[in-house]
Write a structure and sequence with these properties.
alpha/beta; Rossmann fold; 4-stranded parallel β-sheet; globular; disordered C terminus
Length: about 350
Amino acid sequence: MDRPTPPHSPRPDLPPNAPTAAELEAAAARIAPHAHRTPVLTSRTFDGWSGASLFFKCENLQRVGAFKFRGACNAVFALDEATAARGVATHSSGNHAQALALAAKLRGIAAHVVMPTDAPAAKRAAVEGYGARIVNCAPTLEAREATLAEVVAATGATEVHPYDDPRVVAGQATATLELLEEVPELDVVLAPVGGGGLISGACLAVAARGARAEVVGAEPALADDAAEGLRRGERLAPRPPKTIADGLRTALGPLSFGVLAHHGVRIETVDEETIAATTRLVWERMKIVVEPSAAVPVAVALRPGAFAGRRVGVLLSGGNLDLDRLPWHNAGAARSSTR
């Protein structure tokens, strides 16, 4: 029978394949010619509602519209010439697919992307626009992995996993490295949790810089495998793909789970109506486009009193969504807050 990890149990060791501080710095240098150094925005309104000082790292303004470009770019440009010539392959519902397609295009190599049939149309079109070959599969993790294995066997391409790859995690960590450089003395770094690349990168970046910030995860209540898995002390399978935060439907990979467990990260969950309302709120008040996945940590940051008096960095993960299927209509016509 599954049992919660006892409170007095020692935290597990860091996974042996976790990127080192030196590898994070190398990733930052490697992607610098290709990735945007995204801005950090503030909002007096959001500060007033939360009672905290909030700093939003706008990865929605990154190339391909998401932080995923950092990890894909690092993975692609870290390959030696002979390996790169055989191309790269991955499975993804959208943002990583776009990121790998663009990174491969910049290096002049082939990219093969396995995408579930329910992937958002806007993300699918972007992948095709960057020149990658799309291979369709059923919308399950098992189907993604099986189809990707077939593609790799047929092409000889190098697999670049969306999140369970040290090169990808090192690239994602550069978002937090930049945030810590621009906003010193943060008390908290808030990140969304899907496969875990961004938040595990945040943990490693905070540790590498010797920062005092606590890393806190934000996860949809309908996709709470990370929160429950960390509570139990075991990595869980993904939940059924019901949340509107489609980028967070994936379960934690072994590398990210190990990093989060080692650092004792806590995860807060958010219901669907709040995700939809917060997405709309960011559009209305901050005048920037974010996707529902990016709104999840914002919702946690805005909980009254949750971080009162603290300096909180919020990683806005991306801004890619289908404008014909706006989230506040898909979550029961949730309305923006009137606070």
